[in-house]
Design brief:
The chain has 460 residues and is an alpha/beta fold. 33% of the residues lie in helices and 25% in strands. It is built from 15 helices and 20 strands. The strands form 3 sheets. It has a 9-stranded mixed sheet. The mean pLDDT is 95. Bound molecules: [cytidine-5'-phosphate] glycerylphosphoric acid ester. [cytidine-5'-phosphate] glycerylphosphoric acid ester binds at residues 7-11, 16-17, 20, 36, 46, 72, 92-93, 95, 114-115.
Length: 460
């Protein structure tokens, strides 16, 4: 008798899971299914699992081709199970190709092609709807989004849109998506939520069209290039009863949320200063620095420092001024320092694409300060520090994967509750306003880099 084993969360059991299990059984005589415990899912960064382990095990057990169901509780258990249960083959979906090759020392390892697209009956299930998403754009961030989405239960990424059909096709093949489209309306027809990760200057138009077509929108930052455009998008979303959310991953990760509450709880006294920096050296020839009006460090990076500043001090600043460093004759800022003056407080946001600095966040208060080391925007650790170091407190958090999964969970929860939080709308608007002031150029002191050959830095 050939024994086969497979593992999974099997939350809201759907046709994709069932196909996989059926084919797993067909590759042997006896099928054992390991269902992940809530603890193990937490450990491996799987989010938004809606059913308890016993509900998920019951659903799997009812399938006629499943012979035995066990719980998967810890990293490394697969090896122990294979030995203990005398398993001949380990089977898993092709979204995990390569990941379990280490089990080849113990048994045969088979990756089965995953099911592209989920049957629409499940998507309409009122109690546990699965959200059918499409991705606009096929660049780096879209690729990362696909990687991250498999750690979020309750959605299925079904298709991709790119005006260049070839890119869309390649992306769909690579990520085993059900469809690709070069026609935006046809693309929108097939999904109920969209993740927009196209070039910055196209965000607004794609988001608006999607909302007007009745689709929920998760839009990469910056969502638009003026506060009025942001307002327009949120108004359309409200009027349509849809969700619009700016994809600022830091805002939704557990460590960052805790540090904001901690800083605002009075533990460091009144907050008087916020200094936040984000720099990333890129080659001078990269997209971020090319000569178009949407390039440069402010457009690319300032969302993160402004998120921290606006969450801590609000958006009612009195004045703002920039100092920016440019290559002579080029439009993209290489480095910018933005000062925001508040009644009773001041903030500094630093961004750089051609200048490197320490990417830390410091929140200064009248009793003490919060120190968040680089990369603070992937918050895993922060410290409360006081004059008397014996009072200092260290806080550790998990930041799973690339962090995109946190914003995705928030997006799903907003869709299910039908509510968009007012604070994030205000912050998205205020960020777009700051970018608009910067682009107008009237509040910027300009530093010019002396003319010389391309710098030696090749980028990171
Ligand atoms: N699956 C599939 N087609 C889909 C969705 C899922 O074939 N459209 C497969 C997955 O590839 C996996 C199984 O169904 O083999 C279970 O998927 P999940 O419940 O998402 O579990 P997962 O997070 O993949 O668990 O130890 C746990 C395992 O490592 C993976």
């Amino acid at each position: 008798m050939r024994k086969v084993i497979t593992y999974g969360t099997f939350d809201l059991l759907h046709q994709g899971h069932i196909n996989l299990l059926k084919r797993a059984k067909a590759s042997g005589d006896y099928l054992i299914v390991g269902v992940t415990s809530a603890n193990y899912d937490r450990y491996r960064g799987k989010l938004n699992v809606r059913q308890s382990v016993s509900e998920r095990m019951d659903a799997v057990r009812k399938l006629p081709f499943v012979d035995e169901v066990i719980v998967e509780e810890y990293e490394g258990q697969k090896i122990d199970d294979i030995i203990r249960l005398h398993v001949d083959a380990f089977v898993i979906g092709s979204d995990w190709v390569g990941r379990f090759d280490y089990l080849k020392d113990y048994c045969e390892v088979i990756y089965l092609e995953r099911t592209r697209g989920i049957s629409s009956t499940q998507l309409r299930n009122a109690k546990h709807p699965i959200i059918r998403m499409g991705v606009v754009g096929t660049g780096r961030i879209a690729n990362r989004f696909l990687q991250e989405s498999k750690f979020v239960s309750g959605i299925t990424v079904e298709g991709v849109f790119n005006i260049h059909e070839d890119s869309a096709k390649r992306f769909a093949e690579k990520h085993e998506l059900a469809f690709y489209e070069a026609d935006y309306d046809r693309f929108l027809d097939k999904i109920n939520a969209v993740y927009i990760a196209s070039p910055h200057d196209t965000h607004f138009a794609y988001a608006k069209h999607a909302l007007l077509s009745g689709k929920n929108v998760l839009c990469e930052k910056p969502m638009a290039f003026s506060g009025d455009e942001v307002d327009e998008l949120f108004s359309i979303a409200e009027a349509q009863g849809l969700i619009l959310m700016e994809a600022i991953k830091t805002a939704y990760c557990p460590g960052f949320q805790r540090l904001i509450s901690c800083a605002k709880s009075g533990k460091i006294g009144d907050i008087v200063g916020v200094d936040a920096a984000f720099t990333k050296l890129v080659p001078m020839s990269s997209r971020e620095l090319r000569d178009d009006p949407y390039s440069g460090s402010v457009t690319e990076l300032i969302t993160y420092p402004l998120l921290a500043i606006f969450r801590l001090l609000g958006t009612d600043y009195e004045d703002l001024h920039f100092t920016s460093y440019y290559r002579k004759g080029h439009v993209a800022d290489l480095y910018t320092r933005l000062i925001l003056d508040y009644p009773g407080a001041a903030a500094l946001a630093v961004t750089g694409l051609g200048v490197k600095s320490e990417g830390e966040l410091i929140i200064s208060g009248t009793r003490g300060y919060v120190y968040v080391p680089a990369p603070w925007w992937k918050t895993e650790y922060f410290e409360l520090r006081y004059e008397d170091p014996s009072e200092n407190e260290k806080n550790f958090y998990k930041f799973a994967g690339d962090g995109l999964r946190y914003e995705l969970v928030e997006f799903i929860s907003q869709i299910l509750s039908g509510k968009m939080p007012a604070e994030s709308q205000t912050i998205s608007r205020a960020i777009a306003d700051v970018i608009a002031v910067f682009r107008a150029g009237k509040r910027t002191r300009v530093l010019l880099r002396p003319d010389r050959e391309r710098p030696s830095v090749s980028g990171t």
